[in-house]
Design brief:
Layout (H helix, E strand, L loop, with lengths): L4 E6 L3 H16 L3 E2 L8 E6 L4 H20 L4 E6 H5 L1 H7 L5 E3 L7 H9 L5 E2 L18 E5 L1 E2 L10 H5 L3 E2 L2 H13 L4 E5 L16 H9 L6 E4 L9 H9 L3 E6 L7 H6 L6 H14 L4 E8 L6 H14 L3 E6 L17 H24 L5 E9 L6 E5 L11 E4 L8 E10 L2 E6 L6
Parallel strand pairs: 1-2, 1-3, 3-4, 4-5, 5-6, 7-10, 10-11, 11-12, 12-13, 13-14, 17-19
Antiparallel strand pairs: 8-9, 15-16, 15-18, 16-17, 18-19
Length: 445
């Protein structure tokens, strides 16, 4: 059997990064060779995102670029995987005939069989979701930080979101499978695990015995060699007192929480089918800060949702200004086919939504800059990541307050470091969303 070379192109969220690492391990175990350069590959796998319009457009462009490589290079077969493949399988099949195989996120475990069929001249389509979360082998990235996906699917059915129709109902991975994967990652040099799912706080409710996120965290907190555990994508009404207590009591669970709140107007939250209210959100944020005064909070909000009035937007703006989140991502509402919001009356003009997005972005930039300024002069523990791309002769890394890829970095002069090192840095300044500092040694600590 020929040992075909395969390249995986990954788009979208951290959950897709995890899926691509699973795909890599499955393909290597299936006697394929992984290559990083798509131009070298005989088989190209494009792992797509289909969440919002901008992500869909990026995925389509990546597929078309792969088509060009197939037409001009040594690539023989093109496999399209992921959310876009699941959601628009028929359209992709009809509009881009150069695609040789389609495989949705719920069928990734069958990728080896699918690629073999493709190489044999077939054009297979693997779509639909399994009824349970399946555990696959994984090829670690070699970095000190790894995302750990603890569940598949979603049961929240927010009015704007197509994820439940793409990925199916919520399916937790068994605790023992997660711990085995975590141990494998730590053995490969990972010292920070970032827990992800569509909703991490719902973890375990569908499993026998109903183990919860708190139970999982306690197990991970005992794992030798693990320095940081970070929680992303927590649904606000499921952030329990027990979760807050286990975070506050642990030195390895980062005092950091990503809680997508989406809005602050009760009218809009209700239209979004969110099970929260502004009063409840304020109470939650107050409780988190009361129990963990050093906590860093990240959130996301949607502007321009159908029916959002000037009054609703004013409530959101006031909420953002008062809560002073460390980090926020704002998104302009994107109507998604098949969702309740797409057919709601009173759709907001895109230009109005864009202006609201810009206004909140400007406000939050000032808030984040002020928050960052408050760390000047302080000593921070930093996980070293790579040589700085912004400052010559410097390295960069992250503090517990900074999640990978979204929250900026710390830049500092240093020599003879390597990714994965842990160092102490005194913060000396702020550069946009990043921090600048000096490496502390025994002589200047």
């Amino acid at each position: 059997m020929d040992n075909y070379e395969v390249a995986i192109i990954t788009l979208g969220c951290a959950k897709n990064e995890v899926d691509s690492e699973h795909l890599g391990a499955l393909l290597e175990n299936g006697a394929f060779s992984l290559v990083e350069d798509p131009q070298r590959a005989e088989v190209l796998v494009v792992n797509t995102c289909g969440f919002i319009n901008s992500a869909k457009e990026e995925s389509i462009q990546a597929i078309l670029s792969a088509v060009q490589l197939k037409n001009k290079g040594r690539c023989r077969k093109l496999v399209v995987a992921g959310c876009l493949a699941e959601r628009y399988s028929k359209e992709l099949w009809e509009e881009i005939p150069e695609i040789d195989c389609i495989i949705g996120p719920g069928r990734l475990g069958e990728v080896v069989e699918a690629v073999h069929q493709t190489l044999a001249g077939e054009k297979p389509m693997y779509t639909g979701n399994s009824v349970t979360a399946v555990n696959f082998p994984r090829k670690p990235s070699g970095k000190a930080t790894a995302y750990l996906k603890i569940a598949e699917g979603c049961d929240n059915h927010c009015a704007y979101c197509a994820i439940p129709s793409i990925k199916g109902s919520y399916r937790s991975k068994p605790v023992e499978n997660i711990l085995t994967e975590a141990s494998h990652l730590v053995s490969a040099g990972v010292s920070e695990l970032v827990l992800v799912a569509q909703d991490t706080t719902r973890y375990g409710q569908d499993l026998p015995g109903s183990p919860c996120l708190v139970d999982l965290l306690r197990e991970l907190d005992r794992m030798p060699g693990l320095h940081w555990i970070r929680i992303l994508y927590a649904y606000p009404d499921l952030v329990s007192p027990a979760l807050i207590d286990v975070m506050a009591d642990s030195r390895r669970i980062c005092h950091y929480l990503d809680i997508p709140l989406q809005h602050a107007s009760d009218q809009i939250l209700s239209r979004m089918n969110r099970r929260t209210s502004q009063h409840g959100l304020r109470s939650l944020i107050h409780t988190l800060r009361q129990h963990m005064p050093d906590i860093a909070l990240r959130s996301t909000f949607i502007v321009g949702f159908p029916g959002e009035t000037e009054g609703d937007f004013a409530e959101l703006r006031e909420f953002i200004m008062e809560m002073k989140f460390d980090w926020v991502g704002f998104f302009q509402y994107s109507p998604e086919e098949g969702t309740p919001a797409a057919v709601m009356p009173n759709q907001v003009d895109p230009q109005t939504a864009r202006a609201r997005w810009q206004q909140l972005t400007d406000i939050q930039q000032r808030i984040s800059a002020t928050v960052n300024q408050g760390f000047v002069g302080k000593k921070m523990r930093v996980l070293v990541e790579e040589p700085s791309l912004l400052f010559s002769g410097m390295w960069c890394g992250r503090t517990y307050r900074q999640a990978p890829d979204v929250d900026g970095q710390v830049h500092f002069p240093a020599h003879e470091l390597k990714p994965g090192d842990w160092v102490d840095v005194r913060i000396t300044g702020v550069s946009d969303i990043d921090l600048v500092g000096e490496l502390l040694t025994d002589g200047n600590s």
